[in-house]
Amino acid sequence: MLKFVDSTVVFQEIPDETTLAVSLSNCPCRCPGCHSRYLWDDVGRPLDNAALDTLMEPGRGVVSCICFMGGDADPDEVQRLAHHVRQVYPAVHVAWYSGRTCVAPQVDRSLFDYIKVGPYIAHLGPLSSPRTNQRLFKRQPDNSWQDITSRFWKERHQET
Ligand code: SF4
User: What is the percent of the chain where pLDDT is above 70?
Assistant: First the structure.
């Protein structure tokens, strides 16, 4: 079972969404220069359906998206949690920030509205860097995936 360390409402991880970001531990990716080393160990509280419901409750009507941050040690479990969100919170979008280069082939991508892939490579930078290797995709009505990574760059330019 996956465990979570914390959860926070954020506004920048997924463009145009108010997102409940849930940080999952036991990350197997081991990116050099990782900004979240505390997620490498198998720590935190189990994220079963009841725990997920408890996290969702305060944000009802406000949160438009839930993002699983990590979970690459058990992609089947991320998929199961995504299915739970689809069943219980049909108005809430589902996102997954994976550190892998691509999503495991057995995962049903239709359970997700956004998928971010790519490990953190320090000299290329995070999503906000135009040189980044990471990509954020948004599922389209025809189930194709649009690369929306450049949204992070445009928003950065608007801020400066
Ligand atoms: S995927 Fe994220 S948490 Fe995991 S090692 Fe890479 S940067 Fe760290």
Answer: 96
What's the pLDDT tens digit per position in 69-83? 999 999 999 999 999
What range does the domain containing 23 cover?
A: 3-159
Given ligand 1 and candidates 31, 37, 116, 117, which is best to mutate, with the most ligand atoms within 8 Å of its CB? 31
* 70 φψ region: left (φ > 0), alpha (ψ -120 to 50), beta (else): left
Chain-centroid distance of CA 80 in Å reads 14
The answer to whether 11 and 55 have CB atoms below 8 angstroms apart is no
> How many domains are there within the chain?
1
Residues with CB under 6 A from ligand 1: 27, 29-31, 34-36, 39, 70, 99, 119-120
Q: What pTM was computed for the model?
A: 0.95
**From the alpha carbon of 98, which atom of ligand 1 is closest?**
1
CB 151 within 8 A of CB 141: no
- Look up residue 113 and give its DSSP letter: S
